[in-house]
Design the sequence.
């Protein structure tokens, strides 16, 4: 393997490079094509002219019927775009084929590297490369990534750490911006820098651009290292929320640098505008989110377009926010967060899967494209390499990040219960990656009259910082995480016990707070939930589902997942009975639309669950924690007849058992209630003895005719089997008289 | 008890009976007694409240473990209403039903199903070699701790007492 390895690796590299060359070559040759297209009609026309000039009845030169024509201009734009995207995705594929590299180097680095290569190639053939146009980036490439992040944001973790995240985002970014800007101004005053013409405001502008932690880069790197949820949400939340600060600072400094003087009033207005930008963005997002949720209430008849509503409303939220220079990112996040619980309750499962996969797909494509374009633009863009400026920028960025994190954590830890340890602080500081947003914002800077080189200088510095953070920090963060033994993400399955107790705890703590008369977190959260339940859900969720409590939906979701897992893992031997029983369930739910509504026929479900549990007891080894009940499986219609048969059998058992155990009716005694659980487990024995096949009616009869001392034992299980409701409960328990 | 029941905001809480009972439960006083009081004084109130202390940054690892055990024990006592040291299916069902009682549409069957599933889960995680003949008596304290260990109780079960208005404190006297 070791011998073959390098060979195949180089082969693949070679093929990858070949693809690159072909693609860039094609874009080069197309020019030749267009040239040829242009020149071709010429000789024809000449011919014609000549003919007409001669005017004789010389045979007209007939243009042969074009069997094969090339008209590249017609498809030029979509062709190029598709080509780029295809290239990007092929690269992505290629990396995963080369295993060793993809372990060490995060994907983003590889993509930038590829971008560099492509940019180099294009430059070598003297073509104009597609530079990352700011409009392209902000309007097309960024929204999918943010929407994906916002839609799947873990709400609980986010809101629990909201204070910390906000402090990091707002105060941290402000600190970074001013520190870097101020220090760079000082640096510019040094003689050797030869950049004395850079004004303070320009430096501050530069500082504000470069201080923002970039969500794209953070996502790209952190996704691969699987650290624990707390750190992930801290860094990621910070990168999302600091967009508001960045937008405000950027516009502020840009305006100021055109204005003559800066007064205190302007600074005050800046602060006000911060609130306007962030709150306005969130408001826009919430409005669109509510609209989206409301619309999804009525989509039960046209399920196919449901995902589109989610996407379009979110995109509109983003664009509307951008119109007013509000924070588009925050608007997008707010829209996704608000919309999600209601939409998920309304739409079908397939639509949910579609949304999930489309979002992931788009954000993946966007991310890939962004990094490649970053590489290409690096080769292309206006550069002005100024050693001192760049080096100092880098140093100060790192320094300010570290100082900021340490200082803020010191203050924050006074208010947190779960303190941030030194390790956590290090990861947070180290995870402050800069990325494409900084670059695009840099591109947006206008060129002033005498500052021709400033923009180039800034861009160079920005790119250097981006490269440094993505390459160096991105590559080393994984070994560092392992070295420092930072807690990783818990890979455990959601357990229903945990869910029950989380809710229980919420109520408990709310209750305790009420007793203390203390209006704490839980109190307000509880109030919000109550408000949500009584008013909002009625409006935004279709039909009965509005009153479904969270525990139930969680339970149902889990069951469905388990069912699908069961199907996929193909535990075929036990499956028929399981499927049959599930089909039972499905049939009796036929009248209701696809979703599961917890108004189930009591008797049937109870029976089936017991049968399922019994049968699945044997497959316990394969399935972890609990996975007993399946409720929903589509593709087994061919089991219909078997289903019917099973149903009949079950019915017969019930009737038989009922018949047999009807005689003794005694009162229920309290002691009996307590040991009720035991008989249920005796069901296992019972069902194991009788294998679930049609011939069992006979066996049943046999069992029932057994001797008397075994009678009470055996009849209990039968009772349990048909345990539907309270009445028969009592009957059953009465048998446990001894 | 009437004092506690009369707190208006508590009335919306689905598990208020359990909460109130917890205050009067003797097991939470760490006296190794069973049963419950009729009324409690300030000291007993404080003992119960002390279960909700948050861990400070100086708490060592052993102290955290002890704290977690104490909190889990408190929760356990809330579920185990008859004091036999086990949470049986009935008790668990009752707890789940109460949790779901707010919505009202699920009915008893659904609550039972959930409670059953949860019990099954506990059984399978803690006693994986249970044969089909065995009977699962009930959740013991150790099993309870085991299934909740991912929740990190010591950092979740706390109330911030930073700005408590002592005038609003009510004792069950």
Sequence:
């Amino acid at each position: 393997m070791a011998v073959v390895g390098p060979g195949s690796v180089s082969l693949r590299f070679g093929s990858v490079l070949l693809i690159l060359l072909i693609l860039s070559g094609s874009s080069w040759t197309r020019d030749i094509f267009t040239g040829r297209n242009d020149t071709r009609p010429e000789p024809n026309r000449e011919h014609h002219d000549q003919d007409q000039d001669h005017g004789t009845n010389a045979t007209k030169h007939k243009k042969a019927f074009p069997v094969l024509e090339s008209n590249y201009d017609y498809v030029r734009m979509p062709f190029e775009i598709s080509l780029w995207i295809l290239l990007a995705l092929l690269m992505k594929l290629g990396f995963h084929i080369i295993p060793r590299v993809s372990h060490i180097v995060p994907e983003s680095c590889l993509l930038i590297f590829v971008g560099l290569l492509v940019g180099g190639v294009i430059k070598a053939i003297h073509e104009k490369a597609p530079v990352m146009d700011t409009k392209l980036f902000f309007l097309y490439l960024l929204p999918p990534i943010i929407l994906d992040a916002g839609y799947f944001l873990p709400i609980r973790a986010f809101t629990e750490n909201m204070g910390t995240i906000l402090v990091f985002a707002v105060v941290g970014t402000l600190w970074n911006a001013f520190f870097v800007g101020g220090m760079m101004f000082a640096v510019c005053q040094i003689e050797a820098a030869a950049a004395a013409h850079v004004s303070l405001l320009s430096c501050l502008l530069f500082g504000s651009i470069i201080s923002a932690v970039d969500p794209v880069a953070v996502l790209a790197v952190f996704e691969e290292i699987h650290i624990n949820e707390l750190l992930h949400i801290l860094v990621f939340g910070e990168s999302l929320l600091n967009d508001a600060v960045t937008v405000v600072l950027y516009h502020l400094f840009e305006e100021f640098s055109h204005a003559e003087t800066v007064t205190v009033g302007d600074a005050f207005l800046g602060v006000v505008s911060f609130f306007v930008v962030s709150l306005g963005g969130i408001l826009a997002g919430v409005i669109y989110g509510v609209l989206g949720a409301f619309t999804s209430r009525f989509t039960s008849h046209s399920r196919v377009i449901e995902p589109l509503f989610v996407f379009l409303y979110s995109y509109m939220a983003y664009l509307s926010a951008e119109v007013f220079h509000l924070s588009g990112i925050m608007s997008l996040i707010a829209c996704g967060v608000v919309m999600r619980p209601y939409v998920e309750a309304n739409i079908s499962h397939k639509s949910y899967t579609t949304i999930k996969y489309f979002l992931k797909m788009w954000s993946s494509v966007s991310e890939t494209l962004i990094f490649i374009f970053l590489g290409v633009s690096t080769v292309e863009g206006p550069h002005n390499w100024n050693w001192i400026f760049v080096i100092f920028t880098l140093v100060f960025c790192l320094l300010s990040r570290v100082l900021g994190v340490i200082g803020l954590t010191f203050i924050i830890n006074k208010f947190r219960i779960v303190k941030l340890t030194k390790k956590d602080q290090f990861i947070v500081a180290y995870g402050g990656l800069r990325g494409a947003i900084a670059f695009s914002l840099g591109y947006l800077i206008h060129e002033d009259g005498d500052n021709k080189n400033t923009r180039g200088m800034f861009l160079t510095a920005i790119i250097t910082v981006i490269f440094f953070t993505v390459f160096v920090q991105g590559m080393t963060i994984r070994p560092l995480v392992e070295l420092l033994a930072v807690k990783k993400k818990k890979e455990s399955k959601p357990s229903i016990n945990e869910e029950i107790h989380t809710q229980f705890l919420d109520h408990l703590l709310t209750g305790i707070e009420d007793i203390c008369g203390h209006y704490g977190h839980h109190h307000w959260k509880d109030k919000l939930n109550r408000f949500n339940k009584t008013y909002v859900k009625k409006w935004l969720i279709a039909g009965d589902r509005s009153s479904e409590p969270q525990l139930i939906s969680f339970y149902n979701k889990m069951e469905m997942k388990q069912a699908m897992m069961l199907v996929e893992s193909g535990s075929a031997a036990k499956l028929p009975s399981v499927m049959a029983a599930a089909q039972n369930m499905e049939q009796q739910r036929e009248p209701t639309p696809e979703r599961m509504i917890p108004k189930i026929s009591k008797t049937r479900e109870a029976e089936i669950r017991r049968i399922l549990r019994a049968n699945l007891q044997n497959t316990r080894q394969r399935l972890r924690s609990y996975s007993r009940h399946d409720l929903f499986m589509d593709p087994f219609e061919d089991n219909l007849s078997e289903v019917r048969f099973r149903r009949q059998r079950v019915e017969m058992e019930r009737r038989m058992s009922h018949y047999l155990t009807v005689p003794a009716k005694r009162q229920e005694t309290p002691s009996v209630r307590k040991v009720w659980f035991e008989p249920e487990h005796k069901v296992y024995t019972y069902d194991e003895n009788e294998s679930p096949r049609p011939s069992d009616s006979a066996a049943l009869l046999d069992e029932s005719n057994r001797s008397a001392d075994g009678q009470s034992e055996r009849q209990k299980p039968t009772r349990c089997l048909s345990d539907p409701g309270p009445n028969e409960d009592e009957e059953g328990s009465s048998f446990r008289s001894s | 008890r009437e004092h506690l029941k009369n707190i208006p905001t508590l009335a919306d809480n689905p598990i208020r009976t359990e909460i109130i009972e917890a205050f009067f439960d003797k097991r939470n006083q760490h006296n190794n007694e069973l049963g419950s009081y009729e009324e409690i004084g300030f000291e007993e109130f404080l003992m119960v409240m002390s279960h909700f202390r948050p861990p400070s940054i100086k708490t060592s690892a052993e102290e955290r473990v002890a704290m977690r055990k104490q909190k889990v024990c408190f929760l356990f006592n809330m579920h185990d209403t008859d004091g036999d040291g086990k949470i049986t299916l009935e008790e668990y069902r009752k707890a789940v039903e109460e949790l779901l009682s707010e919505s009202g549409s699920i009915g008893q069957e659904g609550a039972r199903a959930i409670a059953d599933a949860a019990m099954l889960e506990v059984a399978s995680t803690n006693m994986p070699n249970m044969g089909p003949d065995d009977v699962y008596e009930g959740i013991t304290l150790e099993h309870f701790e085991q299934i909740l260990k991912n929740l990190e109780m010591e950092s979740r079960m706390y109330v911030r007492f930073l700005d408590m208005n002592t005038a609003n404190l009510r004792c069950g006297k």
Remarks:
- Residues 14 and 99 of chain B are 6 Å apart (CA to CA).
- Residues 162-173 of chain B have pLDDT under 50 and may be disordered.
